[in-house]
Amino acid sequence: MEQRLKALLDSEDIIIGEQMNAHTTFRVGGPAHFFVTPKSEAELKAVLRLCKETNTAWFVLGRGSNLLVSDEGFDGVVISMQKHWNQYHTERNRITAQAGVMLAAIAQEALRNRLTGLEFASGIPGTVGGALRMNAGAYGGEMKQVVVSATVLDTNGTIHEVSNEELELGYRTSSIEKNGYIVLSCVMELQDGDPDTIRSTMNEMNAKRREKQPLEYGSAGSTFKRPEGYFAGKLIQDAGLKGFRIGDAQVSEKHAGFVINRGNATASDIMKLCTEVSKRVKQQFGVDLEMEVRRLGTFGEKKFETN
Fold first, then answer.
1. Of 51, 136, 173, 241, which one has the fewest beta carbons inside 10 Å?
2. Which of 222, 252, 278, 295 is catalytic?
3. Residue 306's pLDDT is what?
4. What is the pLDDT of residue 307?
């Protein structure tokens, strides 16, 4: 596999045994067997084709801001989009951005061009591709409101132009996730706005974020999905679990909806903590908490490999 990858990609775009703690905001995770950064559609298709031919597991990585990688790492190919898929441009009121661009950078691009609609994204620490996959949102805004279309690659190597409607953007879900698509780029449509108002709104939202969220620690944002009719953070707090800790993994004392790495947590600590939190909330309130954070690798007897 190594030699075949080297025949497809430049040497600087292949790393053997790259530690994933450097590529996740939780700051945990063992080595990826292969860590690759394809430059083009042709290289990306070739890597996918090779994985399919050799029955090798693969995973597409953005910023790693909604990801927990096991301590043992991932025995497959991690395809990182950040290094080479980071171009964007604005034409009138539309911004076209590749998958690896940080969402916050696009929010700043909108501000520079006097465009409103992406203020909510200015503090989200993910890439455009990851944000689209999970329909990222904050403070009443979400990707669904601004995305016109996306260019995606399916698992057979075919490129599709997918409309907003076809993306099926819902609460932390999309057809990208359901169909295993890889986002290549997307087009966002915004409205003309006043730059002072846009900047003020961004500053206000980011001040709220700093006040209410434990940004000084490693985390993956909101750890659990919002159960219908409830708020995950309130359920966890009402269960008496604010500050609950296993090793260096802890339910944040600032916001119970966040699990944080106090510095030396392992992925196992984090997973054990999440499992125990879910168990206690179920026991006390009869509500099932589902993790919003994606997992990669082996946790206990469960193996997570899918995109």
1. 173
2. 222
3. 63
4. 62
